[in-house]
Structure formats: C-alpha cells, structure tokens
Amino acid sequence: MPCYRCGTRQVDPDRGASPWLRGVRDDRQVLVCPGCQANSSWPDDLDRCPVCASIHLVRRLGEVECRDCGNVAEPRLGPGDAVGFAVPEAQESGSGELAEEVEQALARVLRRLPRPVGIW
Prior knowledge:
17% helix, alpha+beta, 5 strands, three-stranded antiparallel sheet, two-stranded antiparallel ribbon
C-alpha cells in the first residue's frame, strides 16, 4: 500500500518497528511514509476521534477504532459508498503500474513466473 500523500510504495520492512505510520482519512485506512512525516502538516489531513481528538485511528471490519481511548465508531460512509484503503493522491492515474506490481508480488509469493506482458 502506498503513502497517501506522495504515492511512495512501502517495501518489505527490515526487522523491528516500521517507520511508516497508519491513520484514517475520509474513513479509509492510509499509510504515511517517513518522508511525508517530516512535513509537520500531515496530521491535519487525518480523521480524528470524536471523543479524544486523537489521530491514532485504525479502520477494520467496518468500524473505526481509536488506539488512544478505545472508542469504536461506525464509519461516516453510507452503505453504497466505497470502503477500504484510500487511493493515494499522487498515483490515482497509475493503476497500470500498480496492477503490474501486484501481479509480480503475487508471483513471488506463489513462486511462479509472471505471465508475459500483452497476454490477456
């Protein structure tokens, strides 16, 4: 999943804690890369807990939970709205590259060769 601000893709992490941060923006789970964390305005883009105003939110199984106070809330999106991970602003039009990256990653995980380009 890429950074929602710049579109940088997260790579396999080294051992230990990841320098990437997670948050919720417009009811969608997002990641923030270390480079964008250097900009002090990135927390302003994230949703906040309605109880304690924390940005330490996580979205899972149709709900948003605050990691600081434990408040669990229903997402603001309606039943017909898209849910899940946010599309990074910097890469909304690059879905072809993303599809290729996903296919290559699946091939590595499943230990098979990717299909030749131009087939299908």
